[in-house]
Amino acid sequence: MKKLLVDVDCGVDDAQAIMMALAMPDVQILGITCVQGNTSLENVCKNVLRILKVCKHLEIPVFRGATKALLEQTVSGGEFHGKDGLGDAPDPDAPGLDLVQKEGAVSAMIRIVNENPGEVSLVATAPLTNVALAVKLDSSFPKRLKGLYIMGGNTDSRGNITVCGEFNFAADPEAAYIVLNEFICPVYIATWEFVLRSKIPWEFCDGWLAQDTDKARFMKQIFKKIMESMKKVTDGQGFISCDSYAMAAAIDNTYIIETEQKAVTVELTGNCCRGMMVVDHLEILKKSHKVHILKKVDLERFKVLMMNALK
């Protein structure tokens, strides 16, 4: 079994990523940690429970994490994913927050990894606040991880929330800086530019949502509101599920075709560049640890994983 921890701010693409992992018979999610990002922490927790309910996996523990960035909330995600993070789709039978664990997210991360040393991959599809706090509380935390899979950052200074910053990094630049500079386990990053290059046709999305299952009906409901916004982001040229690209890398080794190994860091100052991921092509930083930046993946395999998520 592939053991995962998943750290989310539970927008619609986080939901898609979680459902992708839950559909894999050889994947075990040991816990889902929540952090503010696409929406408030309370909404994130509610959204995760809604996803687990429709997938019939409410036994998976859900943990509350950080309510704000390490220093300040530098940018807001707005309402791209709706006010509640899941497209403002009504759900009168949503599970209650009493199902959220009493243990905090960061403590749970450290405990679960310590109980399974070298076996757990952490998939981080949100601002990296929880992940940064984990390494600050336990400096050995990264050494015990099997790998870290991040959706975030950028390679060509193309922003999606600031001029040069991708949202997950720009929402907590200090956290992203800590993670990229202190995690020495294998790190894989699906950047904003990468997901834009990895679009799949909208015709696929139509068939994906047309499946006759409760999961597909749930996805169609939460995805409806943001589809037009996404078409504007991609100029109508295709469908992207940002967080699912990082999840696919964690759960299916055949999906990754090519990566670029580079030292990276995060810019913390500047009027335009705060939160931007910096790629050290000239090796000026003299860092021995390099991350794997996704460059090319098997999109046909990705489609299969996406389809299976809603079966």
Descriptive key words:
single chain, 311 residues, alpha/beta, Inosine-uridine Nucleoside N-ribohydrolase, Chain A, nine-stranded mixed sheet
Mind explaining what this structure looks like?
With 311 residues, this protein is of the alpha/beta class. The chain has a single domain (2-309), classed as Inosine-uridine Nucleoside N-ribohydrolase, Chain A, CATH 3.90.245. The chain is built from 13 helices and nine strands. Helix 2 links the parallel strand 2 and strand 3 (62-64). Helix 3 crosses helix 4 (129-137). The mean pLDDT is 94.
Largest sheet: 9 strands, mixed
- The dominant shape is globular
**CATH fold-level assignment:** Inosine-uridine Nucleoside N-ribohydrolase, Chain A
| Tally of separate domains | 1
Structural class: alpha/beta
Helix count, DSSP H or I runs of 4 or more residues: 13
Distance between the termini: 21 Å
Task: Tell me the CATH architecture.
Answer: Alpha-Beta Complex
Helix content: 25-40%
The CATH superfamily is identified as: Ribonucleoside hydrolase-like
* Mean pLDDT, all residues: 94
Q: What integer value in Å does the Rg equal? A: 18 Å
- CATH level-1 class: Alpha Beta
List the strand order in the largest sheet.
3-2-1-4-5-6-9-7-8
Q: How large a portion of the residues is in β-strands, by DSSP E?
A: 15-25%
User: What series of H and E elements makes up the topology?
Assistant: EHEHEHEHHEHHEHHHHHEEEH
